[in-house]
Amino acid sequence: MGKRKLLIRVLVVIAIVVAAAIVVFVTVVIPKLEEGLKVLDTIEFDSLDLASIKDGSYEGSYSAGIVKATVRVKVENHAITDIDILKHDNGKGKAAEAITADVIKNQSVQVDVITGATYSSKVILKAIENAVASSGQ
């Protein structure tokens, strides 16, 4: 009988700890994650001034809460010739990585986002913009 009471007490303590962890997650963690993503709803992209950029490879990053990207942009003859995604923390936004082809084709970060991967698309675009901006124009 003593073992049964001890087991019940242990299970009650575990249940209390789990319930407290859920409350903290819902009231603290989730709002912080959503706050980072809300920035992406109103983010704007600048024009890329490729005419003033020297040939080379430039790295840029951008982070919005749980979605993050680091890219390397290769510029030759004042044109973006290649974009490598070095890191992309994306949740379900892996499809957004295809946006690099649109950027190269249009020579601009002002392109349509990938449907179903809007936040990741915007984070990648901002990382590309930041890479070009880091070129020291």
Overall pLDDT, averaged? 89
H/I helix tally: 3
| pLDDT < 50 runs, ≥5 residues | none
Order of helices and strands: HEEEHH
Q: Helix content range of the residues, please?
A: 40-55%
How many strands appear in the DSSP assignment? 3
Rough outline? elongated
Instruction: State the end-to-end CA separation.
Output: 78 Å
For the sheet with most strands, the description reads:
3 strands, antiparallel
Layout of helices and strands, plus pairs?
Layout: H1 2-38, E1 56-64, E2 67-76, E3 79-89, H2 99-106, H3 118-133
Antiparallel strand pairs: 1-2, 2-3
Quick description:
The chain is α+β, with helices and mostly antiparallel strands.
Describe the fold and architecture.
- The protein is built from three helices and three strands; from the N terminus they run H-E-E-E-H-H.
- Helix content is 45%, strand content 22%.
- The model has no long low-confidence stretch (mean pLDDT 89).
- A three-stranded antiparallel sheet has the order 1-2-3.
- The protein has 137 residues and is α+β, with helices and mostly antiparallel strands.
What keyword list fits this structure?
137 residues; alpha+beta; 3-stranded antiparallel β-sheet; 3 helices; elongated
